[in-house]
Amino acid sequence: MNTTNLRLVTSAKPTLSTAPPDPDLYQAMCIEAYQPSQAARGFSQLTIDNGAATLERFLTACGRPAWEVTRDDIDRVVGELATVGMATSTRRGYLSTFKGFFTFLCARKVVEIEAMFGMRLADPVDEFNASRHVGTDSPHVLPPPTPQRLDTFFAFLRDRIATARVFGTAARDYALFRTLYHAGLRSEEAVMLDVADLYFDRGPFGKIHVRFGKAANGSGPRPRWVPMLDGLDLILKWYLADVRGKLADGAPLFPDQSGDRLHRGSVRNRLAQLLDLEDAAASERFSPHAIRRACATHNYERGMDLVAIQQLLGHWQVGTTMGYVRPSATFIEDAYRRAVSATLTALEDGQR
Fold first, then answer.
1. Positions of the region Disordered (predicted)?
2. Is the Cβ–Cβ distance between 254 and 191 less than 8 Å?
């Protein structure tokens, strides 16, 4: 064998590329991986697709991958959206979509991102640039008022009717806030109700025709029918028979002293005044929106289906409803007791 042309190769080890992957390509892969997790949480495919498009537009405006976005970027982009006249709710949707994706990166991709790009993830959405409703599941988010707290408040309003200087206004306040709670209405939906929107003969409980439900995605008002649950039909029948005629004439169900519609800001201010009169402690105060969240939470805790609550509140996406529900500290124990009780009852019935 002729070996004159052979030579020793000092290193046959292949050279590995240490260059990081393309950030845009990796981000696209992360967005694609994010979608199955949303499906697992119950979001529809339409919601997932719309969210992906919203996320991509927001990241394009930021001009950098999600893991490099800073608080200054968030301030700048949200400010630009406001400057071009984008509605507050739409800006909130952009920010909420980004925050959801960033939370996914922190939970699933933090090690990869630090290894490939040398970036440690830090949430750029803070208490200063977060729109209202864009939050986290951290303990500082106040839970809605408990059923016991609302029972106490409604008892105060009911007792006040007999002693208030103006009977009609005090009775209107009682009916208004009971309606907000039992029907889960937004303040702006409640003040737009007319007397003619009450249909006591519709369905087993009677229904309220909410003609001016909150718009979504640039649409006009989205009407819906809301049942009068938990005896709300009896409260509203009493209100129409004994109270409404003592207020100024007009179409509005809950008018001001001149007969015009209350402003939604007046509802918030009125609630604050009533809590002052009740001498409520700071920890026992709440807003009209908290009453709406209480409606969602309390109905969920007693077994109402989440989709039914979504329809009750008029949410476009069930994911929004999930954000409203904040079960009590004993929710798991209470659910366990109900399950065990139901099982024991079934066993006892089977032995008879």
1. 1-20
2. yes
C-alpha 93/C-alpha 252 separation (Å) is: 32
The pair of structure tokens assigned to 92 is 């909130």
C-alpha–C-alpha distance, residues 91 and 57, integer Å: 12
Q: What does pLDDT average to over the chain?
A: 86
Sheet arrangement for strand 224-227: 198-199, 207-210, 224-227
CATH entry, 23-117, from 1.10.150, 2.60.40, 1.10.12, 1.10.10: 1.10.150
Domain with CATH 1.10.443.10 in the chain: 147-333
**pLDDT tens readout for residues 97-131:** 999 999 999 999 999 999 998 888 888 987 777 76
Task: Return the DSSP state at 283.
Answer: G
Residue 345 has pLDDT above 80, yes or no: no
Q: What is the predicted pLDDT for the residue at 351?
A: 64
pLDDT digits 0-9 by tens, 237-271: 999 999 999 999 999 999 998 999 998 889 999 99
Helices 147-163, 288-301: axis angle to 10 degrees equals 130
217 pLDDT band, cuts 50/70/90, is low
Task: Name the strand (E) or helix (H) holding 207.
Answer: strand 207-210
Report the CATH fold assignment for 147-333. hpI Integrase; Chain A (1.10.443)
Angstrom distance (rounded) from CA 79 to CA 81: 5
How is residue 343 written in tokens? 């099982």
The whole-angstrom distance between residue 140's C-alpha and the CA centroid of its chain comes to: 16
Query: What's the pLDDT at 131?
Result: 61
List the structure tokens of 19.
Answer: 């260059």
Token readout for 236 is 């509203």
Q: What is the pTM of this model?
A: 0.59
Instruction: Outline which parts of the chain fall under CATH 1.10.150.
Output: 23-117
Neighbours of 339 (CB within 10 A): 10
Please tell me the distance from the alpha carbon of residue 126 to that of residue 78, in angstroms, as a whole number.
13
